[in-house]
Design goal:
Elements lengths: L1 H22 L3 H5 L9 H19 L16 H20 L3 H5 L1 E5 L5 E5 H25 L9 H13 L3
Antiparallel strand pairs: 1-2
Length: 169
């Protein structure tokens, strides 16, 4: 269980750095159409925020059939608010997890209305993996608009957050 806490701690650290990369950009760059499956930084970041919140709600036993759109969260700070709230929900959820619960299956209704089932621990890990994937897209897009993304590599987190704690062991 400690490794899940570390994984989510890393995820929050990486999200904070991504948010910082986005906050320094002009709004025109945040909404600029760059093409691709998520054509704007806003669309990609809104997706991260909405999906993270959707998983928190599903873990609480609630169905989520729709994610917020760019129209729902037009400004960066709107999506930041949703993401930070979702992270808090996940943090609280992790506190109550047991090994037994992680080893059981989890069922949810996806956005297409289909019931899916997976080992719960896989789904919990997916929440971080999904965000990592899209943070990579955001980093690439930030470069394309002339910005400089802040690195979010897990090893950098390990060095910055935990490196001094393990020195000399």
């Amino acid at each position: 269980m400690i490794e899940l806490f570390g994984l989510y701690e890393y995820n929050e650290w990486a999200n904070d750095r991504t948010i910082a990369s986005l906050r320094v950009l002009p709004e025109d760059d945040y909404i600029r159409d760059l093409g691709g499956s998520w054509p704007t930084l806003r669309a990609t970041f809104v997706h991260i925020a909405g999906a993270t919140d959707a998983w928190a709600e599903r873990f609480a036993g609630n169905d989520v059939l729709v994610l917020p759109t760019e129209a729902d969260l037009p400004r960066l700070e709107d999506a930041v608010r949703v993401l930070l709230s979702a992270q808090e929900k996940h943090r609280n959820h992790l506190k109550n997890l047991t090994r037994d619960r992680l080893e059981r299956t989890f069922s949810w209704t996806n956005l297409s209305g289909e019931v899916k089932t997976s080992p719960f621990e896989i789904v919990v890990r997916h929440v971080v993996n999904h965000q990592t994937y899209h943070r990579g897209q955001i980093a690439s897009m930030v470069r394309r608009v002339g910005g400089k993304p802040i690195a979010t590599d897990m090893v950098r987190w390990g060095i910055e957050i935990h490196g001094s704690q393990t020195a000399g062991r």
